[in-house]
Design goal:
Elements (H helix, E strand, L loop, with lengths): L3 E4 L9 H16 L3 E6 L11 H12 L8 E2 L4 H13 L3 E4 L3 H13 L15 H9 L5 E4 L6 E6 L3 E6 L6 E4 L7 H11 L4 E5 L6 H10 L6 E5 L2 E2 L28 H7 L3 H9 L3 E3 L7 H7 E6 L4 E2 L2 H14 L2 H8 L1 H6 L5 H8 L6 H12 L7 H9 L2 H9 L7 H12 L4 H12 L7 H7 L2 H14 L13
Parallel strand pairs: 1-2, 2-3, 9-10, 11-14
Antiparallel strand pairs: 4-5, 5-8, 6-7, 12-13
Helix pairs in contact: 1-9, 1-10, 6-7, 9-11, 17-18, 17-21, 19-21
The structure holds glutamic acid.
Protein backbone atom coordinates (compact mmCIF):
# COMPACT_ATOMS: atom_id res chain seq x y z
CA UNK A 1 0.00 0.00 0.00
CA UNK A 2 1.47 3.37 -0.94
CA UNK A 3 2.09 5.72 1.95
CA UNK A 4 -0.48 8.39 2.80
CA UNK A 5 0.97 11.31 4.74
CA UNK A 6 -0.37 14.67 5.72
CA UNK A 7 0.68 18.08 6.90
CA UNK A 8 -1.67 19.39 9.57
CA UNK A 9 -0.84 22.97 10.50
CA UNK A 10 -2.97 25.05 12.84
CA UNK A 11 -3.58 28.46 11.23
CA UNK A 12 -2.16 30.38 14.18
CA UNK A 13 0.56 32.21 12.27
CA UNK A 14 2.99 32.00 9.40
CA UNK A 15 4.78 28.71 8.92
CA UNK A 16 8.43 28.76 9.93
CA UNK A 17 11.31 26.56 8.85
CA UNK A 18 10.45 23.86 11.40
CA UNK A 19 6.87 23.64 10.08
CA UNK A 20 8.13 23.68 6.51
CA UNK A 21 10.48 20.82 7.30
CA UNK A 22 7.58 18.77 8.72
CA UNK A 23 5.60 19.44 5.55
CA UNK A 24 8.61 18.55 3.42
CA UNK A 25 9.33 15.26 5.23
CA UNK A 26 5.71 14.22 4.74
CA UNK A 27 5.78 15.28 1.11
CA UNK A 28 9.03 13.41 0.47
CA UNK A 29 7.87 10.27 2.30
CA UNK A 30 4.69 10.21 0.18
CA UNK A 31 6.43 10.90 -3.11
CA UNK A 32 9.20 8.43 -2.28
CA UNK A 33 6.85 5.52 -2.88
CA UNK A 34 4.22 7.10 -5.09
CA UNK A 35 1.81 7.72 -2.22
CA UNK A 36 -0.32 10.69 -1.32
CA UNK A 37 0.41 13.88 0.58
CA UNK A 38 -2.67 15.46 2.15
CA UNK A 39 -3.16 18.90 3.62
CA UNK A 40 -5.32 19.36 6.69
CA UNK A 41 -5.90 22.74 8.28
CA UNK A 42 -6.49 22.22 12.00
CA UNK A 43 -8.71 25.22 12.49
CA UNK A 44 -10.84 24.21 15.44
CA UNK A 45 -9.40 26.74 17.88
CA UNK A 46 -11.02 29.97 16.67
CA UNK A 47 -9.50 32.02 19.50
CA UNK A 48 -5.92 31.28 18.39
CA UNK A 49 -6.59 31.44 14.67
CA UNK A 50 -4.92 34.30 12.81
CA UNK A 51 -6.75 36.01 9.96
CA UNK A 52 -5.19 35.14 6.64
CA UNK A 53 -2.97 32.41 8.09
CA UNK A 54 -4.55 29.60 6.06
CA UNK A 55 -4.06 31.44 2.77
CA UNK A 56 -0.49 32.27 3.76
CA UNK A 57 0.22 28.61 4.55
CA UNK A 58 -1.16 27.49 1.19
CA UNK A 59 0.93 30.14 -0.57
CA UNK A 60 4.10 29.11 1.29
CA UNK A 61 3.60 25.43 0.48
CA UNK A 62 2.94 26.21 -3.17
CA UNK A 63 6.08 28.38 -3.33
CA UNK A 64 8.13 25.55 -1.83
CA UNK A 65 6.68 23.22 -4.45
CA UNK A 66 5.01 20.99 -1.85
CA UNK A 67 1.86 20.34 -3.83
CA UNK A 68 -0.80 18.40 -1.94
CA UNK A 69 -3.20 15.82 -3.30
CA UNK A 70 -6.92 16.48 -3.40
CA UNK A 71 -8.78 19.26 -1.65
CA UNK A 72 -7.63 21.03 1.47
CA UNK A 73 -9.29 19.34 4.45
CA UNK A 74 -10.66 21.82 7.01
CA UNK A 75 -10.92 20.27 10.42
CA UNK A 76 -13.57 22.75 11.57
CA UNK A 77 -15.98 21.34 8.98
CA UNK A 78 -15.78 17.87 10.53
CA UNK A 79 -17.61 18.67 13.78
CA UNK A 80 -20.50 16.26 13.18
CA UNK A 81 -18.16 13.35 12.59
CA UNK A 82 -16.07 14.24 15.64
CA UNK A 83 -19.21 14.29 17.79
CA UNK A 84 -20.30 10.95 16.32
CA UNK A 85 -17.03 9.50 17.59
CA UNK A 86 -17.74 10.96 21.05
CA UNK A 87 -21.16 9.32 20.91
CA UNK A 88 -19.73 5.97 19.81
CA UNK A 89 -17.19 5.99 22.63
CA UNK A 90 -19.87 6.97 25.15
CA UNK A 91 -22.07 4.11 23.99
CA UNK A 92 -19.16 1.72 24.40
CA UNK A 93 -18.77 2.96 27.98
CA UNK A 94 -15.33 4.39 27.24
CA UNK A 95 -16.13 7.96 28.33
CA UNK A 96 -17.46 9.34 31.57
CA UNK A 97 -18.42 12.85 32.67
CA UNK A 98 -15.99 14.58 34.99
CA UNK A 99 -17.27 17.41 37.18
CA UNK A 100 -13.94 18.29 38.78
CA UNK A 101 -13.32 22.03 38.70
CA UNK A 102 -10.06 23.56 37.43
CA UNK A 103 -9.22 24.37 41.03
CA UNK A 104 -9.75 20.80 42.26
CA UNK A 105 -7.59 19.52 39.40
CA UNK A 106 -4.84 22.03 40.12
CA UNK A 107 -4.78 21.02 43.81
CA UNK A 108 -4.54 17.33 42.89
CA UNK A 109 -1.70 18.10 40.48
CA UNK A 110 0.20 20.01 43.09
CA UNK A 111 -0.19 17.21 45.64
CA UNK A 112 1.14 14.70 43.11
CA UNK A 113 4.07 16.91 42.25
CA UNK A 114 4.90 17.33 45.94
CA UNK A 115 4.86 13.56 46.29
CA UNK A 116 7.25 13.32 43.34
CA UNK A 117 4.69 11.61 41.11
CA UNK A 118 3.89 12.51 37.52
CA UNK A 119 0.73 14.60 37.43
CA UNK A 120 -2.25 12.68 36.14
CA UNK A 121 -5.99 12.71 36.70
CA UNK A 122 -6.61 10.90 40.02
CA UNK A 123 -9.83 9.29 38.75
CA UNK A 124 -12.19 11.14 41.10
CA UNK A 125 -15.22 10.96 38.78
CA UNK A 126 -14.43 7.59 37.22
CA UNK A 127 -16.58 5.72 39.68
CA UNK A 128 -19.50 8.17 39.84
CA UNK A 129 -22.85 6.44 39.78
CA UNK A 130 -24.27 7.00 36.25
CA UNK A 131 -27.63 8.15 37.65
CA UNK A 132 -25.87 10.67 39.88
CA UNK A 133 -23.75 11.86 36.97
CA UNK A 134 -26.87 12.28 34.80
CA UNK A 135 -28.59 14.25 37.58
CA UNK A 136 -25.64 16.66 37.90
CA UNK A 137 -25.36 17.07 34.16
CA UNK A 138 -29.08 17.81 33.87
CA UNK A 139 -28.73 20.40 36.62
CA UNK A 140 -26.32 22.23 34.25
CA UNK A 141 -23.22 21.50 36.27
CA UNK A 142 -20.31 21.88 33.82
CA UNK A 143 -18.45 18.70 32.94
CA UNK A 144 -15.84 17.37 30.58
CA UNK A 145 -15.84 13.88 29.09
CA UNK A 146 -12.88 11.73 29.98
CA UNK A 147 -11.56 8.64 28.30
CA UNK A 148 -11.38 5.62 30.57
CA UNK A 149 -7.78 4.48 30.12
CA UNK A 150 -7.50 0.70 30.56
CA UNK A 151 -5.40 -0.18 33.63
CA UNK A 152 -2.24 -2.23 33.61
CA UNK A 153 -1.40 -2.14 29.92
CA UNK A 154 1.61 -1.09 27.93
CA UNK A 155 1.06 0.94 24.75
CA UNK A 156 3.96 0.43 22.36
CA UNK A 157 4.87 1.52 18.89
CA UNK A 158 7.99 1.85 16.82
CA UNK A 159 8.75 5.46 16.08
CA UNK A 160 10.67 6.22 12.89
CA UNK A 161 12.90 8.72 14.66
CA UNK A 162 13.02 7.51 18.26
CA UNK A 163 12.68 3.74 17.81
CA UNK A 164 10.73 1.48 20.16
CA UNK A 165 8.41 3.45 22.46
CA UNK A 166 6.48 2.02 25.41
CA UNK A 167 4.10 3.82 27.75
CA UNK A 168 2.39 2.25 30.76
CA UNK A 169 -1.32 3.11 30.75
CA UNK A 170 -1.12 3.44 34.54
CA UNK A 171 1.01 6.55 33.99
CA UNK A 172 -1.38 8.14 31.51
CA UNK A 173 -4.46 8.94 33.56
CA UNK A 174 -7.98 9.35 32.17
CA UNK A 175 -7.79 12.25 29.75
CA UNK A 176 -10.26 14.85 28.53
CA UNK A 177 -11.84 14.16 25.16
CA UNK A 178 -14.41 16.96 25.16
CA UNK A 179 -14.12 20.20 27.08
CA UNK A 180 -16.86 21.65 29.28
CA UNK A 181 -18.18 23.68 26.32
CA UNK A 182 -18.64 20.43 24.40
CA UNK A 183 -15.73 21.05 22.01
CA UNK A 184 -13.51 18.04 21.33
CA UNK A 185 -9.86 18.19 22.40
CA UNK A 186 -7.12 18.89 19.85
CA UNK A 187 -5.33 15.56 19.95
CA UNK A 188 -8.63 13.66 19.85
CA UNK A 189 -9.83 15.20 16.55
CA UNK A 190 -6.28 15.06 15.23
CA UNK A 191 -6.30 11.25 15.59
CA UNK A 192 -9.88 10.94 14.30
CA UNK A 193 -9.01 12.89 11.17
CA UNK A 194 -5.90 10.83 10.52
CA UNK A 195 -8.16 7.78 10.50
CA UNK A 196 -10.84 9.50 8.38
CA UNK A 197 -8.27 10.60 5.81
CA UNK A 198 -6.64 7.18 5.66
CA UNK A 199 -3.28 8.54 6.82
CA UNK A 200 -0.74 5.73 7.12
CA UNK A 201 2.30 7.70 8.27
CA UNK A 202 2.42 10.71 10.59
CA UNK A 203 5.69 12.61 10.61
CA UNK A 204 5.54 15.48 13.08
CA UNK A 205 7.55 17.33 15.69
CA UNK A 206 8.56 15.34 18.74
CA UNK A 207 6.70 17.82 20.94
CA UNK A 208 3.70 15.63 20.00
CA UNK A 209 5.28 12.37 21.15
CA UNK A 210 3.41 12.32 24.47
CA UNK A 211 0.05 12.63 22.64
CA UNK A 212 0.65 9.45 20.71
CA UNK A 213 -0.17 6.78 23.34
CA UNK A 214 -3.47 8.55 24.06
CA UNK A 215 -4.23 8.74 20.37
CA UNK A 216 -3.43 5.05 19.93
CA UNK A 217 -5.87 4.20 22.74
CA UNK A 218 -8.61 6.28 21.09
CA UNK A 219 -8.07 4.72 17.68
CA UNK A 220 -8.09 1.25 19.19
CA UNK A 221 -11.30 1.93 21.13
CA UNK A 222 -12.98 3.05 17.91
CA UNK A 223 -11.63 0.11 15.92
CA UNK A 224 -9.50 2.27 13.62
CA UNK A 225 -6.11 1.19 12.29
CA UNK A 226 -3.27 3.27 13.72
CA UNK A 227 -0.86 5.07 11.42
CA UNK A 228 2.89 4.72 11.77
CA UNK A 229 4.58 7.62 13.51
CA UNK A 230 7.86 9.45 13.23
CA UNK A 231 8.45 12.19 15.79
CA UNK A 232 11.13 14.30 14.30
CA UNK A 233 13.35 16.32 16.66
CA UNK A 234 12.45 19.97 16.78
CA UNK A 235 14.30 22.51 14.75
CA UNK A 236 15.70 25.22 16.97
CA UNK A 237 16.52 28.80 16.18
CA UNK A 238 20.18 29.80 15.92
CA UNK A 239 20.23 30.65 19.64
CA UNK A 240 18.99 27.18 20.55
CA UNK A 241 15.41 28.14 21.41
CA UNK A 242 12.44 26.50 19.68
CA UNK A 243 11.08 28.34 16.67
CA UNK A 244 7.69 29.84 17.18
CA UNK A 245 4.99 30.42 14.62
CA UNK A 246 3.94 33.52 16.49
CA UNK A 247 7.17 35.41 16.80
CA UNK A 248 10.40 33.55 16.03
CA UNK A 249 12.33 36.18 17.99
CA UNK A 250 15.07 34.75 20.11
CA UNK A 251 15.09 37.46 22.73
CA UNK A 252 18.42 38.87 21.65
CA UNK A 253 19.23 42.15 19.92
CA UNK A 254 17.45 42.07 16.62
CA UNK A 255 19.60 41.03 13.66
CA UNK A 256 18.75 39.63 10.28
CA UNK A 257 18.93 36.12 11.73
CA UNK A 258 16.72 36.61 14.74
CA UNK A 259 14.32 39.44 13.95
CA UNK A 260 10.67 38.75 14.63
CA UNK A 261 9.52 35.93 12.41
CA UNK A 262 13.03 35.51 11.02
CA UNK A 263 12.38 31.86 10.39
CA UNK A 264 9.07 32.44 8.65
CA UNK A 265 9.15 30.92 5.18
CA UNK A 266 7.69 34.13 3.76
CA UNK A 267 10.56 36.20 5.19
CA UNK A 268 13.18 33.90 3.74
CA UNK A 269 11.38 34.13 0.42
CA UNK A 270 11.46 37.95 0.66
CA UNK A 271 15.17 37.74 1.52
CA UNK A 272 15.69 36.05 -1.84
CA UNK A 273 16.24 32.45 -0.90
CA UNK A 274 15.41 30.04 -3.68
CA UNK A 275 12.73 27.49 -2.70
CA UNK A 276 14.99 24.62 -3.76
CA UNK A 277 17.73 25.92 -1.47
CA UNK A 278 15.30 25.82 1.44
CA UNK A 279 14.02 22.32 0.70
CA UNK A 280 17.50 20.94 0.07
CA UNK A 281 18.70 22.43 3.34
CA UNK A 282 15.65 21.30 5.33
CA UNK A 283 15.70 17.76 3.94
CA UNK A 284 19.12 17.33 5.55
CA UNK A 285 18.25 18.77 8.95
CA UNK A 286 17.60 15.50 10.84
CA UNK A 287 16.64 13.76 7.59
CA UNK A 288 18.75 11.41 5.46
CA UNK A 289 19.38 12.14 1.80
CA UNK A 290 21.70 10.00 -0.27
CA UNK A 291 23.25 12.87 -2.23
CA UNK A 292 25.28 15.99 -1.60
CA UNK A 293 23.84 17.77 -4.62
CA UNK A 294 21.05 20.33 -4.70
CA UNK A 295 18.28 18.21 -6.14
CA UNK A 296 14.96 19.12 -7.67
CA UNK A 297 12.07 17.94 -5.49
CA UNK A 298 11.29 14.78 -7.43
CA UNK A 299 14.93 13.61 -7.21
CA UNK A 300 15.08 14.62 -3.57
CA UNK A 301 12.09 12.33 -2.93
CA UNK A 302 13.98 9.42 -4.49
CA UNK A 303 17.16 10.14 -2.52
CA UNK A 304 15.31 10.71 0.75
CA UNK A 305 15.14 7.85 3.26
CA UNK A 306 11.72 8.03 4.96
CA UNK A 307 12.80 5.49 7.56
CA UNK A 308 15.77 7.37 9.00
CA UNK A 309 15.68 10.49 11.11
CA UNK A 310 18.13 11.90 13.62
CA UNK A 311 17.04 11.83 17.26
CA UNK A 312 18.42 15.07 18.55
CA UNK A 313 17.29 18.62 17.91
CA UNK A 314 19.17 20.65 15.33
CA UNK A 315 19.83 24.36 15.33
CA UNK A 316 19.20 26.58 12.38
CA UNK A 317 22.50 27.24 10.63
CA UNK A 318 22.46 30.15 8.21
CA UNK A 319 25.85 29.16 6.74
CA UNK A 320 24.40 25.81 5.80
CA UNK A 321 21.34 27.44 4.28
CA UNK A 322 23.58 29.78 2.30
CA UNK A 323 25.64 26.80 1.16
CA UNK A 324 22.47 25.24 -0.27
CA UNK A 325 21.54 28.56 -1.84
CA UNK A 326 24.95 28.58 -3.57
CA UNK A 327 24.70 24.99 -4.75
CA UNK A 328 21.12 25.49 -5.91
CA UNK A 329 21.94 28.61 -7.92
CA UNK A 330 24.98 26.91 -9.45
CA UNK A 331 22.73 24.13 -10.73
CA UNK A 332 20.10 26.46 -12.23
CA UNK A 333 19.81 26.80 -15.99
CA UNK A 334 20.36 30.40 -17.21
CA UNK A 335 16.65 30.95 -17.85
CA UNK A 336 15.70 29.82 -14.37
CA UNK A 337 18.44 31.93 -12.78
CA UNK A 338 17.30 34.94 -14.80
CA UNK A 339 13.67 34.47 -13.72
CA UNK A 340 14.75 34.20 -10.07
CA UNK A 341 16.80 37.45 -10.31
CA UNK A 342 13.53 39.29 -10.71
CA UNK A 343 11.96 42.29 -12.38
CA UNK A 344 14.33 45.03 -11.13
CA UNK A 345 17.27 43.15 -12.69
CA UNK A 346 15.34 42.48 -15.91
CA UNK A 347 14.65 46.19 -16.19
CA UNK A 348 18.35 47.14 -15.98
CA UNK A 349 20.08 44.58 -18.13
CA UNK A 350 19.92 45.19 -21.92
CA UNK A 351 18.33 42.20 -23.69
CA UNK A 352 21.36 41.80 -25.95
CA UNK A 353 23.67 41.48 -22.93
CA UNK A 354 21.47 39.13 -20.94
CA UNK A 355 23.34 35.87 -21.53
CA UNK A 356 26.78 37.40 -21.07
CA UNK A 357 25.61 39.19 -17.93
CA UNK A 358 24.27 35.93 -16.42
CA UNK A 359 27.47 34.06 -17.24
CA UNK A 360 29.69 36.81 -15.79
CA UNK A 361 27.87 37.56 -12.53
CA UNK A 362 26.58 34.05 -11.69
CA UNK A 363 29.38 33.10 -9.25
CA UNK A 364 29.00 36.39 -7.40
CA UNK A 365 25.26 36.29 -6.92
CA UNK A 366 23.70 34.70 -3.85
CA UNK A 367 20.58 36.89 -3.63
CA UNK A 368 18.62 38.90 -6.18
CA UNK A 369 20.01 42.05 -4.52
CA UNK A 370 23.52 40.97 -5.59
CA UNK A 371 22.32 40.52 -9.17
CA UNK A 372 20.82 44.00 -9.06
CA UNK A 373 24.02 45.48 -7.68
CA UNK A 374 26.02 43.96 -10.55
CA UNK A 375 23.42 45.18 -13.03
CA UNK A 376 24.06 48.71 -11.76
CA UNK A 377 27.82 48.27 -11.87
CA UNK A 378 27.76 46.97 -15.41
CA UNK A 379 25.01 48.99 -17.04
CA UNK A 380 24.71 52.25 -15.14
CA UNK A 381 26.71 55.32 -16.15
CA UNK A 382 27.43 56.34 -12.58
CA UNK A 383 27.26 53.37 -10.24
CA UNK A 384 28.01 54.27 -6.65
CA UNK A 385 31.52 53.02 -5.76
CA UNK A 386 31.90 51.29 -2.41
CA UNK A 387 33.84 53.03 0.35
CA UNK A 388 36.65 50.48 0.40
CA UNK A 389 37.17 50.89 -3.34
CA UNK A 390 37.22 54.69 -3.00
CA UNK A 391 39.82 54.40 -0.24
CA UNK A 392 41.98 52.19 -2.46
CA UNK A 393 41.69 54.62 -5.35
CA UNK A 394 42.58 57.56 -3.14
CA UNK A 395 45.77 55.81 -2.06
CA UNK A 396 46.72 54.89 -5.62
CA UNK A 397 48.81 56.90 -8.03
CA UNK A 398 46.82 58.99 -10.48
CA UNK A 399 49.41 58.30 -13.17
CA UNK A 400 48.50 54.62 -13.11
CA UNK A 401 44.97 55.38 -14.28
CA UNK A 402 46.07 58.07 -16.71
CA UNK A 403 48.38 55.56 -18.39
CA UNK A 404 45.75 52.85 -18.31
CA UNK A 405 43.39 55.30 -20.03
CA UNK A 406 45.88 56.28 -22.71
CA UNK A 407 46.58 52.58 -23.35
CA UNK A 408 42.92 52.13 -24.17
CA UNK A 409 41.43 52.41 -27.65
CA UNK A 410 37.73 51.97 -28.19
CA UNK A 411 36.94 48.33 -28.76
CA UNK A 412 40.32 47.07 -27.57
CA UNK A 413 40.05 43.61 -26.04
CA UNK A 414 40.79 42.97 -22.39
CA UNK A 415 43.90 40.85 -23.03
CA UNK A 416 45.46 43.38 -25.38
CA UNK A 417 44.63 46.31 -23.13
CA UNK A 418 45.96 44.54 -20.03
CA UNK A 419 49.27 43.84 -21.75
CA UNK A 420 49.57 47.51 -22.69
CA UNK A 421 48.69 48.68 -19.16
CA UNK A 422 51.27 46.32 -17.74
CA UNK A 423 53.96 47.73 -19.97
CA UNK A 424 52.91 51.32 -19.43
CA UNK A 425 52.74 51.14 -15.63
CA UNK A 426 55.19 48.39 -14.79
CA UNK A 427 52.58 46.95 -12.44
CA UNK A 428 51.71 43.28 -12.23
CA UNK A 429 49.80 40.83 -10.06
CA UNK A 430 47.55 42.40 -7.42
CA UNK A 431 49.20 45.81 -7.97
CA UNK A 432 47.77 45.68 -11.48
CA UNK A 433 44.43 43.99 -10.94
CA UNK A 434 43.27 45.58 -7.68
CA UNK A 435 43.29 49.21 -8.85
CA UNK A 436 41.83 48.21 -12.22
CA UNK A 437 38.99 46.36 -10.50
CA UNK A 438 38.38 49.24 -8.10
CA UNK A 439 38.34 51.72 -10.97
CA UNK A 440 36.15 49.71 -13.34
CA UNK A 441 33.63 48.34 -10.83
CA UNK A 442 33.88 50.49 -7.69
CA UNK A 443 34.25 47.19 -5.80
CA UNK A 444 37.23 45.30 -4.40
CA UNK A 445 35.74 41.91 -5.25
CA UNK A 446 33.56 40.60 -7.97
CA UNK A 447 33.31 38.60 -11.15
CA UNK A 448 36.20 37.85 -13.45
CA UNK A 449 37.50 41.20 -14.75
CA UNK A 450 37.74 40.05 -18.37
CA UNK A 451 34.00 39.34 -18.34
CA UNK A 452 33.25 42.65 -16.65
CA UNK A 453 35.39 44.51 -19.15
CA UNK A 454 33.62 42.93 -22.08
CA UNK A 455 30.28 44.20 -20.80
CA UNK A 456 31.39 47.78 -20.21
CA UNK A 457 30.98 50.23 -23.08
CA UNK A 458 34.12 52.16 -24.18
CA UNK A 459 32.53 55.34 -22.84
CA UNK A 460 32.04 53.79 -19.40
CA UNK A 461 35.59 52.43 -19.36
CA UNK A 462 37.00 55.86 -20.15
CA UNK A 463 34.75 57.64 -17.73
CA UNK A 464 35.62 55.25 -14.86
CA UNK A 465 39.35 55.49 -15.48
CA UNK A 466 39.04 59.27 -15.48
CA UNK A 467 37.09 59.21 -12.23
CA UNK A 468 39.74 56.93 -10.68
CA UNK A 469 42.51 59.29 -11.80
CA UNK A 470 40.69 62.24 -10.27
CA UNK A 471 40.23 60.41 -6.95
CA UNK A 472 43.82 59.14 -6.85
CA UNK A 473 46.80 61.01 -5.52
CA UNK A 474 48.79 63.05 -8.02
CA UNK A 475 52.13 61.47 -8.84
CA UNK A 476 54.88 62.55 -6.44
CA UNK A 477 58.31 61.35 -5.51
CA UNK A 478 61.41 60.25 -7.28
CA UNK A 479 60.15 57.17 -9.00
CA UNK A 480 57.49 58.23 -11.45
CA UNK A 481 55.80 55.55 -13.45
CA UNK A 482 57.56 54.53 -16.62
CA UNK A 483 56.19 56.32 -19.69
CA UNK A 484 55.23 54.35 -22.78
N1 LIG B 1 -1.92 21.07 14.31
C1 LIG B 1 -0.79 20.44 14.91
C2 LIG B 1 0.37 21.42 14.90
O1 LIG B 1 0.33 22.40 14.15
C3 LIG B 1 -0.44 19.20 14.12
C4 LIG B 1 0.09 18.08 14.93
C5 LIG B 1 0.29 16.85 14.07
O2 LIG B 1 0.97 16.94 13.05
O3 LIG B 1 -0.26 15.81 14.43
O4 LIG B 1 1.31 21.26 15.64
Amino acid sequence: MPTVTRFAPSPTGQIHLGNARTALFNWLAARHDGGKFLLRIEDTDAAREMTGATDAILADLAWLGLVWDGDVFHQSRQRARHLDAVKALTEKGRLYPCFCSERTLALARRAQERAGKPPRYPGTCAALDPAEAARRANADEPYTLRFRVPAGRIVSFVDRAHGEQSFATDDIGDFVVTRSDGSPAFFFVNALDDAAQGVSLVLRGDDHLSNTPRQLLILEALGHAAPEYGHVPLMLGSSGRPMSKRDGLDGEPETRANRAGAYAVSHLRDDGYHPLALVNYLARVAGHVDSVDALPLADLARAFDPGKFARSAARFDSDQLDHWQRVTLDALAPDALWAWMGEPVHARVPVTERDAYIAVVRPNVLFPGDALDWAFVLFDDNPMPQKAAVALLQDADAAFFERAASAYDDGLEWGAWLAKVKTATGAKGPALFKPLRAALTGRLDGPDLAGVFALLTPARIRQRLALAASLASPSVGAAPLRRE
